[in-house]
Amino acid sequence: MRLWLILGATSAFLSVAAGAFGAHALRAKLAPDLLNIFETGARYHMYHSLGLIAIGLLAQARPSPLLNAAGWAMVAGLLLFSGSLYALALSGVRALGAITPLGGLGFLAGWLLFALAAWRQPG
Fold this sequence. Notes:
Blueprint: H1 2-26, H2 32-61, H3 65-91, H4 100-120
Helix pairs in contact: 1-2, 2-3, 2-4, 3-4
């Protein structure tokens, strides 16, 4: 499905932009622990952008409701996991870290659904 390819590529673009922003604009402005948090958000952002692209490639060959569910779970994970880490690093509000595990659950659900969709594919 083209949606996952478009979302994955756009998300990968944004993760590269976030990584560059962290490396160049934030290095001198954030405490090392907050910069590390920001970089973790960017790293997982890219991993799961690639996951969305993989979902899109498989969905083009063999569409599946499970693949769509996997894509939406990864999108939710991106917003909650990476989004909360970016917000925590930029604001310093540590309570935002309470949201991060929910994003991790989204990532886990996305990969599990992706695996299940692949398992059910014929051939």
